[in-house]
Design goal:
Blueprint: H1 5-28, H2 31-50, H3 61-78, H4 81-91, H5 96-120, H6 126-152, H7 155-178
Helix pairs in contact: 1-3, 1-5, 2-4, 2-7, 3-4, 4-5
Length: about 180
């Protein structure tokens, strides 16, 4: 099986716990500070990935738990925790097929935690639910397109495309907020 269940368990525990804190921050932080935090986070992820940062030693349980905690926090803030997990795992030399398969299950679990936290913090309304269902259409298109690109493009090319897009989005977010 391509899913690494022991890895999934370690990162998910921290993510679920920290996701509730991230949602609480989302519910209570000023929107400009939220935008700055998210933009700096994406910029950091894009830069360490573009610079091809790699850990010299294999991932320890502590590093994986910390990865889960940080990812859970940012997942609670903006549903962007998976980017950190993927970046940390690829920097730790996990095979991309295992990372991809494990992340699919991780996303399902962590989004349940996010919506639970959002409900507890009164961030879920009918409008949010309807918009979420409506957004499933472009999401499914994106999944289809991503799967096609994943199988047809070299891994290096696909990764660079994603990282440059993240870099541009983070810089646009910072410029928009700071100006």
């Amino acid at each position: 099986a391509e899913i690494d269940y022991s890895l999934l368990k370690i990162i998910t525990i921290g993510s679920v716990i920290a996701s509730f804190f991230g949602v609480w921050v989302l519910a209570n932080i000023h929107p400009d500070w939220h935008q700055i935090l998210m933009s700096v986070y994406l910029l950091f992820i894009a830069l360490i990935s573009l610079l091809r940062f790699e850990f010299k030693k294999p991932a320890t349980k502590f590093r994986l738990y910390m990865t889960g905690l940080i990812a859970g926090f940012y997942n609670g803030m903006a549903a962007l925790g998976g980017i950190f997990v993927a970046s940390m795992l690829t920097s730790s030399r996990y095979p991309i097929k295992n990372v991809r398969a494990t992340m699919v299950v991780y996303f399902f679990i962590i989004e349940v935690a996010f919506f639970t936290g959002a409900y507890i913090n009164n961030l879920v309304s009918k409008e949010v639910v309807y918009t979420s269902f409506l957004m499933c259409i472009p999401m499914l298109f994106g999944i289809f397109l991503g799967a096609k690109l994943f199988t047809s493009l070299p891994e290096k090319t696909l990764k660079q495309m994603v990282l440059f897009t993240l870099l541009l989005l983070s810089l646009a977010g910072l410029v928009k907020t700071l100006l």
